[in-house]
């Protein structure tokens, strides 16, 4: 006798029952007619048993399937609710702070207007060039300050008639700060030439200008030639230190176009009112270097004394047996005839006789 077993799969979360039907066994009706009744009874019982677990398993499976769907639906509804609430909340916030933004923008425009009006004068002040004058230039002590004044200074030099005090103040400021600007230097050259040709600069002012050019290593032939022409007849009244400084600067720049001026810087002329006028031997002529010729205030006679102080004993040697050379006479007091080793002994012997 065959028995039927129902093969079922355990149902769990997310798993469906594959089969709840019990397989029926085939019986021969002729072999056992008496069992027909029991056969139908067993079929009915099996059907009843099959219906009962099927309904329970299906109910469980349906319940389990419906749970994730329900949960997914709830999540979607929550998301929709949050999404709908977020824009509404954002709109509310925008509405709430809209009046603040509008007021701040209006206030910012109102505040920007006076701020712009306040900044406008400052910009104008910055754009305005500083006023340049002789007093302003005398106060300049730094290179940076001179750099700020440079544009205005150039216009100032080109703008009007600059006097001696103005150009001297400019030269002093440039030399003091060691500020070199080619455009400004060219303007200073132009003003210096005009003033020197008009003889409007004295020796001290010209000295400041020459010192400025030496400090900046700036040379212009026209300026130095104008200095030579303006002060050729004034070297006698110049200080010896100033003359030596000018001579050194002229030679340093290699300016030797006016050789007579350089000779007068080295040895100033003798005024006509002086006793030594044309009586003292010319030192340059004794070396064949005098370029003044007839305008020289010294004597070109080789027999002329070297100085009036030695004029009384200039020719003492003529009555003696000692003959000095020209070099000995030119050297003056020293070891030769006029020195203590020669002159004193010879004069002493002559006085003893």
TrEMBL record:
UniProt keyword terms in alphabetical order: Metal-binding, Zinc, Zinc-finger
Domain of life: Eukaryota
Keyword Zinc-finger listed: yes
Boundaries of every C3H1-type domain copy: 276-303
Compositional bias ranges of the Basic and acidic residues kind: 42-68
Region (Disordered): 1-135
MF terms in GO: zinc ion binding
InterPro entries: Znf_CCCH
UniProt keyword annotation of Zinc present: yes
UniProt feature, compositional bias: Acidic residues: 102-112, 119-135
C3H1-type zinc finger locations on the chain: 276-303
Protein name stated in the entry: C3H1-type domain-containing protein
Organism: Alexandrium monilatum
